[in-house]
Structure formats: C-alpha cells, structure tokens
Write a structure and sequence with these properties.
It comes from Candolleomyces aberdarensis. By secondary structure, the protein is of the alpha/beta class. Helices cover 14% and strands 26% of the residues. The chain binds 2-acetamido-2-deoxy-beta-D-glucopyranose (3 copies).
C-alpha cells in the first residue's frame, strides 16, 4: 500500500515523458527486507534502490527458482555499505516494456534470500499462485536456513498456535524418530497417514508420489489457505512412471498442532489435508479439520457452536 502511494505521488511530480521514480530501501534498519517489498510500475519508470549499511545485492531471478540469478538478468553486484554512511549509494533499474509481466529480485548475500529478502515489480495479487507472498514463501522454503541439500528439504515450523503452552510441551524424545507420510500414494488425493503424532526433535518426511502435489502449512480454521510465514514445499510434479520420489522434511520443534493441505487445484477441497499433533480429544481434531476443508460452510456452524 505504501508502495502505491509513493508511486502515485512521484508519478504526479515527475514529468510524464520521463516516467516515475520509485524509491526502494535495501536492508533498512539492518533488516533482510526491501522496503517496500514490491512496487507497481509502468514501462519507463525507474526503480531506485538505496543500499543501507551491510552488504546486499539486487539480483533478478525467475518466479521459480527464487534466489537464483536469471540469465542475462539485472544484477547490482555486492554493495558493501559502512554504518552511518550518508548519503546511501543508489542503483537504478529501468522498468522495461514487458506488458506488465512480473519481475522478481532477491539479495544474493549468503542466507539473505532464504530469510525472505526478495522484491518484485508488478507481482500478481495475493490470491494468485504466483503472488509476492507465494514467491517469498518459495524463497524461504528452498533457501531457508533449515533447507538441506536436495532431494530433501527441511523447513522450520514457526510457532503459530496461540494456545501453545510451553509448560505442557514435552521434552525431546529420547531417540528422535522419523515419520514418513506419502503424498498422493496410489493416485489418491490423500496423505498416508493423514494424522500423526510426533515428538519434539522428530522429523516428518513427506514423500511425493506421482501427480503434482504440495505440502503447505495452513491453520485449523482455514484449512485450504496458506498460513502466513508457514512452510510450503511448492509444487512437486512427479511422473507416473517415476521410481524415485522427492521428499521434504519437517523438523518438529514444539508440540503445537501443525495443519496442512495440498495446494493443487481442488485437492484440499477433496479432503487432501493432514495434521501433526492435533488434539484428537478436543474440537480441533483431524476429522473436524478435514470436514472444514471439504465443506467450508460448516465453518460458521462449528464456530457458532464453540462460542
Ligand atoms: C538457493 O538455493 C539454490 C539451490 O540450492 C542455490 O543454487 C542458490 O545459490 C541459492 N541461492 C542463494 C542466494 O543462496
Ligand atoms: C560483500 O559480500 C561478498 C559476498 O559475501 C564478499 O565477497 C565481499 O567481500 C563483501 N564485501 C565486504 C566489503 O564485506
Ligand atoms: C503443477 O501444478 C501447478 C499448479 O497447478 C502448475 O502451475 C504446474 O505447471 C504443474 N507442473 C507440472 C509439471 O505439471
């Protein structure tokens, strides 16, 4: 929202023949972000990157893969900036006439992209599978600190449950266990098993079977909507005759229930959901979660009853 206000005011000030200048802060206050995180721009506009202290880049990528330089794409190289530098160094990007297609960028400094330091020009809206948030999620999933070498990627699970109580959280399992969940086994729109319990320190390995599924974290009340800052595997297309199956790993860091679904069109609505550490004796159990995914209209009733 901030970005569009800046864009608008500058567009009004700038002579139209020269396009607008859109200012973007790179790494303000020592944070691994671009501010604003994306802008909407017209051909001929200039995006002016102001490099704050530290040592960042602005490097163009594709939507997928994130955090990987696009061949012949824009790149500033590393711009080391000492503390207290004033004025900040700037680099300009001239917005091309590309029919408004989205352009994606990231910071090439070690670990910055995996912490979500990505930027976009003209990203699609939030509900689009290629939205800014989807790109950022993908960057964190693929290049986050917990990501290990392919074929297995590991994700940190953010602490997301307001009811999580450290006092009742169990201690680490004596011997950490590995739990395996097959994603779409035998062509079914299901995780097998779909509900598990896992101890802190355990690892959950999702193994993707043929078709094109995801493992995407959501919340109990919105089963088919990605959780903000949650994890996602992205789409994992697997050929029908594949003999090796990609996996992603999840390390269990607390006992808060973890809810998730397949982001492929209509899979969640067909009941392709899973839970880890759902409290089966309470109202927020796996069956209720799956019911909500398949029949969102039960949502209001369920909540009405619980109030
Ligand atoms: C992100 O991960 C990919 C695949 O492992 C790697 O090639 C790339 O260099 C990483 N990007 C950054 C900025 O670390
Ligand atoms: C900036 O970061 C790059 C890549 O990590 C490194 O090679 C370079 O030495 C750094 N520059 C300074 C001045 O720290
Ligand atoms: C996987 O599904 C996504 C979303 O429907 C789609 O964009 C992508 O092209 C598919 N990939 C393959 C290889 O079918």
């Amino acid at each position: 929202m901030f970005s569009s206000i800046v864009a608008l005011s500058l567009a009004l000030l700038a002579p139209s023949a020269y396009g607008a200048i859109l200012d973007v802060n790179v790494g303000p206050n020592g944070q691994f972000v671009y501010e604003p995180p994306f802008v909407h721009a017209a051909p001929g506009d200039i995006v002016r990157f102001h490099f704050n202290p530290k040592n960042h880049t602005v490097t163009q990528s594709a939507f997928d893969p994130p955090c990987v330089p696009l061949q012949d794409g824009f790149r500033t190289g590393f711009i080391p900036v000492a503390p207290e530098t004033n004025p900040l160094p700037v680099q300009e990007f001239h917005v091309p006439d590309n029919q408004g297609a989205p352009l994606w960028f990231y910071c090439g400094q070690t670990a910055h992209c995996g912490q979500g330091m990505v930027f976009a020009i003209n990203p699609p809206a939030d509900h689009d599978p290629q939205s800014f948030q989807a790109h950022r999620d993908l960057a964190i999933a693929r290049n986050g600190t917990a990501a290990v070498a392919p074929p297995a990627n590991a994700y940190h699970v953010p602490r997301h449950d307001p009811h999580w109580n450290p006092a009742t959280a169990p201690t680490h399992a004596v011997t950490p266990q590995e739990h395996r969940i097959l994603v779409g086994a035998d062509g079914q729109l299901a995780y097998s098993p779909a509900k598990i319990t896992a101890a802190v320190g355990d690892t959950v390995v999702f193994e993707f079977r043929p078709k094109n599924h995801t493992v995407t974290q959501s919340s109990f009340s919105n089963p088919c909507v990605p959780l903000e800052h949650g994890f996602t595997s992205g789409f994992q297309p697997v050929a029908a005759d594949a003999t090796e199956f990609p996996t992603v790993q999840l390390k269990i860091e607390d006992t808060a229930p973890i809810w998730g679904y397949c982001g492929q069109v209509n899979h969640c609505q067909s009941g392709m959901v899973f839970s880890i550490n759902a409290v089966e004796s309470g109202p927020e159990n796996f069956a209720a979660f799956q019911q909500l995914a398949m029949h969102p209209s039960t949502n209001s009733r369920l909540y009405a009853r619980r109030k």
